[in-house]
Amino acid sequence: MADHIARAPALRPVALVARCASVMLLLAGVAWAARAVWEIRLAVAGEPASGAPDQGGGTHRQLTALENSYHSVSSFGGGVALLCAAVFLSWLWRVRDNARVLSGQKPRYAGFWVYLGWIAPIVNLWVPRGLIADAHLASDPDRPAPLVLNVWWVLWLLGTFSGVGLVYDDGADQVIARAYSEVWPLLASDAAVIGAAVAGALMVRTVTEAQLRRATTWTRPAADVPASEPIRP
Length: 233
Description:
Helix content is 65%, strand content 2%. It is mostly helical. It has one domain (13-46, 75-215). Strands 1-2 form a two-stranded antiparallel sheet. Helix 3 (65-103) packs across helix 5 (127-139). The longest helix is centred in the middle third of the chain and has 39 residues, at 65-103. It starts with a helix and ends in an 18-residue tail after the last helix.
């Protein structure tokens, strides 16, 4: 009987991870806002007479103080983004697992899509949103997916695939050159990333709250667990 109880499904704690994910998303938004400020500063300062940092043919000139500081800001933003991704994926795993327990049904997407869904071409246009939408549906089946989920996803796609957003081949020196010559596309992409970060924080809170509300009325099957055992969402 004890082994049977140990194998019974249980809800995973999600509230603390959700708060951490929301904070990290907002911090990522701040980091991207700092990038935008530095790009504006570069555009206002104008390109030095010596030209762009990358002179071509593998030759790079010495960076100015402002350009060096942009490298620092860019590196900080990249580090924050990586940490944010790790915390966000931890939250996504938990709400997905809880959705499976709450609904009693096999998830539509296998577990590997939690990671692969973000990087696999074509399917990364809808799978990550689908994972979260399914988690919300299992938590609150009487309501459609929240508007903030769609807002977050649209802004994420714009900020990621705009050509100057989260996914691009150019290094910091190339971005600096763009800031000197065409800063507006950079700023538009930055705005989409910042908006996605803010909307993502609200989305995490909304989905988590729906799951916690459902958890207060959910109990394991009587055959699996004693009625006295508390639910720990």
